[in-house]
Design brief:
- The protein has 299 residues and is an alpha+beta fold.
- It has 3 domains: 47-104; 108-179, Trypsin-like serine proteases (Thrombin, subunit H, Beta Barrel); 192-291, Thrombin, subunit H.
- It contains 4 helices and 12 strands.
- The longest helix is centred in the first third of the chain and has 100 residues, at 2-101.
- The radius of gyration is 46 Å and the shape is elongated.
Length: 299
């Protein structure tokens, strides 16, 4: 009996030991599986993150490329629109010149310009000028007011005489800057570099005291030499007479391209000359900056 009990106890111990060993194997296997699973999940998760990062970078690059292409297309379109606008403006100018060549009159240009032309009456004679700034600044030839002790200015609406102040002068360029008080319409000075031989022009002035008279003609040549030795004068065939001096020479766009300055007398006809507008701008600004410390005309 004692031997049997001992064997039973021995068997129980062996069985218990086998059970513990089995449990350890199962636990070890389970732990290994968990570790393997975690490693695999880590690898998969890392791969997913890397893939998302690559996809995000690829998407960002595609977006940047698309934005670059769109901006290029916008720039190209803007350039095309600018070229189209420039061509349209050139066509409009050519159309205006074409209309002039087939005889379109200057009645509209005259109506839009005459209110900015003034008659200058002095104790030594008469001449013309025109308003270049809405505050009443007027440009004329210096010889129109040279030696005068009294002067008055009249506008086309029969207002006047306005009291006039001499702001400054440039004897070499034969220009003077005057000022009257009030609000006025101004004339725009054009770019005399764009003057074309043969284009139609109109001169508004006071020939022989006939106030606000208009004569039309054509540009015969540009950059003619004047009394000051400068090649700065437009030659025109429009009728020019005493009293026209200082008046505007106006193109079909309503821009002043010159100031009537002198004519060749004697038997010659149709030989009038006007100082080109770019010289008017430069000289008038020099006078105003010297006397007033301001710029009257923007280039």
């Amino acid at each position: 009996m004692v031997i049997r009990k001992f064997r039973e106890k021995s068997n129980q111990s062996v069985n218990h030991a086998r059970l513990k060993k089995h449990h350890k194997w199962m636990i070890g296997s389970f732990t290994s599986l968990v570790i393997i699973f975690m490693v695999i999940m880590g690898i998969l998760l890392n791969g997913l993150i890397v893939k998302q990062s690559v996809d995000y970078t690829t998407l960002t690059n595609k977006i940047n490329e698309l934005q670059t292409n769109i901006q290029s297309q916008i720039n190209l379109l803007s350039g095309s629109l600018a070229d189209t606008q420039l061509n349209l403006e050139e066509n409009q100018q050519q159309l205006s010149l074409l209309k002039a060549s087939v005889g379109e009159d200057f009645s509209g240009i005259y109506s839009n310009s005459v209110d900015s032309v003034v008659i200058i009456s002095t104790d030594t004679g008469q001449g013309t000028g025109f308003i270049i700034d809405e505050e009443g600044y007027i440009v004329t030839n210096y010889h129109v007011i040279e030696g005068a002790t009294r002067a008055g200015i009249y506008t086309s609406d029969e207002e006047g005489p306005y009291q006039v102040a001499l702001i400054g002068k440039d004897v070499f360029m034969d220009l003077a800057l005057l000022k009257i008080d009030g609000d006025f319409e101004e004339l725009e000075l054009g770019d005399s570099k764009k003057i074309q031989v043969g284009e139609k022009v109109i001169a508004i002035g006071n020939p022989y005291g006939l106030q606000f008279s208009a004569t039309s003609g054509s540009v015969s040549q540009v950059h003619r030499k004047g009394p000051n030795g400068l090649e700065a004068y437009v030659q025109i065939d429009a009728a020019i007479n005493p009293g026209n001096s200082g008046g505007p020479l106006i193109n079909k766009q309503g821009e002043v391209i010159g100031i009537v300055n002198f004519k060749i007398g004697g038997e010659a006809e149709g030989l009038g000359f006007a100082l080109e507008s770019n010289y008017i701008k430069e000289t008038t600004n020099e006078i105003s900056e010297r006397e007033l410390n301001i710029t009257l005309i923007d280039n």
